[in-house]
Amino acid sequence: MSRRSIQRTVARIAAAGVVLGALAACGGDSSDTAAPGTGGGDESGTAEDVTLTWWHNATSGPMPEVWAQVAADFEANNPGVTVVQTGYQNEELQRTLIPNALASGDSPDLFQVWPGGEIRDQVANDYLMQLDDMIPDTIASVGATVNPWQVDGATYGIPFTFGIEGFWYNTDLFAEAGIESPPTTLTELNEAVDKLKAIDATPIAVGAGDKWPAAHWWYQFALHSCSPDTLTTAAAEFDFTDPCWIEAGTELEEFIASEPFQEGFLGTPAQTGAGSSAGLIANGQAAMELMGHWNAGVIGGLTPDEQVPPFLGWFPFPAIEGSAGDPNAALGGGDGFGCAKDAPTECADLLAYIMSEEVQSQFAASGSGIPTVTAAQSSLEDPNLKAVADGLSQASFVQLWLDTEYGTTVGNAMNEGIVNLVAGNGTPEDIITRMQDAAATL
Amino acid sequence: MTVSTTPAADVRRETPPPEKRRLNLGRPFIYLIALGVAALAIGPVVYVFIGGFRTTADLNANPAGLPDPWVLDNWIAVLTAQRFWGNVLASIFLAVCTTAGVVVAGLMAAYVIARYTFRGRQGLYTLFAAGLMFPLTVAALPLTLMLRTLGLHGTYWGVIIPGIAFALPTTIIILTPFLRAIPEEMEEAAVIDGASRMQFFWRILLPLSKPGLITVGILAFVASWNGYLLPLLVISTGTLPQEWWPLPLGLTQFSTQYSQNTGAVLAYTSLAMIPALVFFLAAEKRIVSGLSGAVKG
Amino acid sequence: MASLTAPGPAETAGPGVLRPPRVRHRNGRTRTWVEVVVFVAPALILFIGFVIVPVVLAAVYSFFNLPAAFSWDMLNAERFVGLDNYTRAFSTPEFRRAITNTFFILFASLLVQGPLAIAIALLLNRRLRGRGVLRLLIFVPYVLAEVIAGLTWKLLLQPNGGVNALLEGLGLGFLQRNWLADPDIALYTIFLILTWKYVGFAILLMLAGLQGVPKELGEAAEIDGASWWQTQRYVTLPLLAPTIRIWAFLSIIGSLQVFDMVWVTVAPTVRQMSTETMATYMVQQGQFAGQPGYGSAIAVILFLISLVIALGYQRLALRRDLAGAVTRGVR
Prior knowledge:
The complex is a heterotrimer of chains A (442), B (297) and C (331). Chain A is α/β, with parallel strands linked by helices and 442 residues long. Chain A contains 20 helices and twelve strands.
């Protein structure tokens, strides 16, 4: 499903998200009635026919079908409403399609809304519909996970999935290599890499060809090198003077020097085809991949029988000993939808329906991600997603993907710097310099 | 360099006069070279076509082999997919509209530049000639920004209109000498017969300049059909669903989306090649002479 | 559209008979102007509106620091950054590499594709069986969309793709490479693909040019005892010079614009590392990294380089016979 779903999450939200799910019971009920129920139908009985365009980022795996079904069900329950849903490649949707559509005033009604710099810009430009008065119960149902989609306390989007990044690994290969339990520290990770090399397995697959999977490695090193305070300050003020930022790059450089990645990783795509990093996990060639919670679905789509392989396991990014970083910090994000400012009110109804416990349970059952409505989390069948959900609940600090957190300009400069570093062509200092230079142009 | 090297002339001269055969030991060698060049040129294309008959498992197991077994599934899958036909139709629509626009607007301007005397005529010609130095790539970025303000972003017209504009310089520069070459006496004769200038244009000039029109039409068609950058910036970032994207764009999208199904990607690629191959190979001589003619002026 | 013999609507044939056509419009100076305006207007409006104006706009935008979604009112003093975007471009290693790469493609095309095409054309410039078919086959790569050609080669050049398998099969396994993913060789791979795509057109252009070289000259030289090579070198090649110049011009203009091929064949990381061209860098920064001001500055730089080269070339090589060149042609 989504590849770089995003989420801006404050430290306390992570655990709270699950706890606050207590609200989900009533939330679920109300959204059930609000969306496909009689209310919408009655209204549109007299109203003119409405067409809702809906853009999402589901292009492979089970999600395109789930969304198509949601659209069809919503249409069936709301006579006169037509839902035109289209899935686009995530990067294109986020970086290009939606910004351009919004700028041109020709935007879809319901679409993916990313937290961080993007939602702030979109709200500043008055592109988004404020949802608080429209579907308050739905908002309540997802608890604190909605916070990243709020600007100045008002809600402009609702996450339907929420997850963190960690290692997807091949339990068979780990057993074969004699790795007893998933690494919890960087030292243990290095040991695991050595053991996997000893059995001629590729220790770690990385889709560095796509830039962002490479960048995520640095994010994780930064997250586990820098204290939560440093991270929060950096997000607010673009202050990267703390030495931990350089340390992160140095640690990553050392790690890459141990050659943990597959051959030719600079040209490997993350998710397309058998030769992609997800494909290498799917066909058992590589043992680990650092990737978001959506990866089980991607891997499943790349196996010959299109099933999530039974050997798949998950563990969180290990701690870096002796650093200021919080060992239980997690990097993650979620996917949310929002409505365009001038969208018909039915858009909010559709959103409420998408967030209903019924659809959220379908989402959970599809194995594509972790639903935000807690009541639906029991429908998680995939043990891997359950593991991610557990990891999320144990995280003491959750950081939004750094490139989203810092916005396009700084985020892009950062990723370019990281790519150079990963390719052995840059320095840890260069990444910081680029970020500071980019921030100075804002 | 002169009017005599305009396309029609080049084509006529194609068949060389009988050449005195001299004994040439290198002759088999020449054929070998020719064969090698031809094989290199079409080898990849043939590979893609044949690959379309292979299963993905077969392709992964033996990337350079022949199909084993031969399957038609990939072709059927692509040919029954709505998105393929949508892509084809979109490409046809874009190419036909662009070509029509280029030919009409270009011919009108070239006619005036070629056969009217008025102040600024030379300046006008120079302006269009200078347009050859404004390649689409250079203007693509600000163009898309501008299309947004015009509300053309994400629409076919956002591709067609700039497509016409950027094909105009070539068109006018190829057509002007063509139109100028039609003898003045012919026009006078027509006038004596009582024809107005417009009638002369429609009745005489147009039929006579047909070869030139076909050449510029083909060039415009090629550019539009094969165009990627403009659709990438204008269409892929707009609201049109993928099923209605033009072929090059639809193909890249298809190959990312169905990357694990290599056989289908190869079949899609092959099918995307066919129209261009058939159409443009038929016009090979015109394209070559047209492009060189454009430079010679 | 009245018949040719019917009298013109408002025009009497009388005066025209005695005068040359252009003067004929004595009564209708304004009429002529109306015709000129009406006929030129569509082309002129389109050309100015969609070719000139965007280039001018690029120059304007390039002096501002603009977000991805911007409006006209953002072109204000607060966002005016002077030449910052330009100085930034030239101090950015990625852009400097993009310039180097673009010029590598440009010079490599001239130095490799040109001689190659001339050599093959000279060899094939004789009566051969199947010559027509050969011409068509050679032309195939050129007529394919660059995107299609690029995707074809991308599939062929996968680590486990057709090319490596073929090398293995030929016993040349040691030559196997990760062609498009290895930053050390990706640019050369791209150049080879571009050569595959465009050398056929060059060959056909040269063949067409050779058609214009009178056979008698070569025969005369041979009678005088010149070898085949001497004949080509001293008789044929000089006469082929105009064709070579035209090809070179098309190739240069095309090389400066390489975009599609790099964009679709190379992974973004490898592109940034080793195959970025000016055009891909411009689109990446201006469109996908959301910096239209900076991207516009790149567009202006690209435009100025093209302009200088085109004007210089026009002056030096083509002189009067260049009316310009096709904007989207060969590389």
